[in-house]
TrEMBL record:
InterPro entries: GntR_C, TF_FadR/GntR_C, Tscrpt_reg_HTH_GntR, WH-like_DNA-bd_sf, WH_DNA-bd_sf. Keywords: Coiled coil, DNA-binding, Transcription, Transcription regulation. Residues 16-83 form the HTH gntR-type domain. SUPFAM superfamilies: GntR ligand-binding domain-like, Winged helix' DNA-binding domain. Residues 115-174 form a coiled coil. It comes from the Bacteria. GO terms for molecular function: DNA binding; DNA-binding transcription factor activity. This is GntR family transcriptional regulator.
Length: 230
């Protein structure tokens, strides 16, 4: 069910179109995990929440269907799409290679201030996990890796990482809500990565560890999907 609304968001008085605002509102709910796979999209309720008619909502849903976030099912109407397992694994595999290489390029450019920020972010992720604040955890995790690879000095590589990450976001940004144990392991792996930076470890070792860090998420995801099917 759509959450009832102490936090009703009315349509802002800006130049943004009603359809675009509805698109962003619904897609954010999906990507943040507020709307879960298989959940029915109640058009009248969303129209009330953002203070508009149902027409922009319907148009937004058509766009979201094109993006793969929503699908139509008989007798249910528009529902949140299930995670595309194959696409998720393929994209995450590519990100593991891109971020591993970018992290190796950045390794010798990270300052003491950067390393301290990484440690702080990792501790904040630990606290977010303890409070079950998975969206905050995801945001901190994204920032953690961005601080590392943004210093790689290769703009083409950065653009490819961003494009690939956006495709991953369309599948599900809140994957750690499905894999809480993996979230805990991720924090431990971050500690190892930080230590490698501090020790000026061989670049090949840094690249390997960052790549494996992403691959471990694939392994955990595949295990979870197998368990669900058994």
């Amino acid at each position: 069910m759509v959450k009832k609304n102490s936090n009703v968001k009315k349509l802002p008085k800006t130049t943004i179109s009603k359809t675009q605002y509805a698109y962003e509102y619904i897609s954010t709910k999906i990507l943040d995990g507020d709307f879960v796979p298989g959940q029915r999209i109640i058009i009248d309720q969303i129209a009330k929440e953002i203070g508009t008619s149902t027409i922009p909502i319907r148009e937004a849903i058509r766009n979201l269907e094109s993006d793969g976030l929503i699908e139509y099912k008989a007798y249910s109407g528009a529902v949140v799409s299930a995670i595309n397992e194959t696409e998720y694994i393929e994209i995450l595999s590519v990100i593991s290679v891109l971020e591993g290489y970018a992290s190796a390029l950045s390794a010798r450019k990270l300052t003491e201030k950067n390393l301290n920020e990484l440690m702080k972010l990792n501790e904040q992720m630990h606290q977010a996990l303890k409070q079950f604040e998975f969206e905050k955890f995801n945001q901190l995790n994204r920032k953690f890796h961005t601080i590392i690879f943004e210093k790689c000095g290769n703009n083409f590589l950065l653009d490819e990482i961003e494009r690939t990450q956006q495709r991953l976001d369309r599948i599900r940004r809140s994957i750690f809500t499905l894999l809480p144990e993996r979230a805990r392991q991720s924090i431990e792996e971050h500690q190892l990565i930080i230590q490698l930076f501090k020790e000026n470890a061989p670049l090949s070792k840094i690249e390997e560890e960052v790549r494996q860090h992403r691959i471990n998420t694939i392994i955990a995801f595949q295990k979870q999907m197998r368990n669900k099917k058994n």
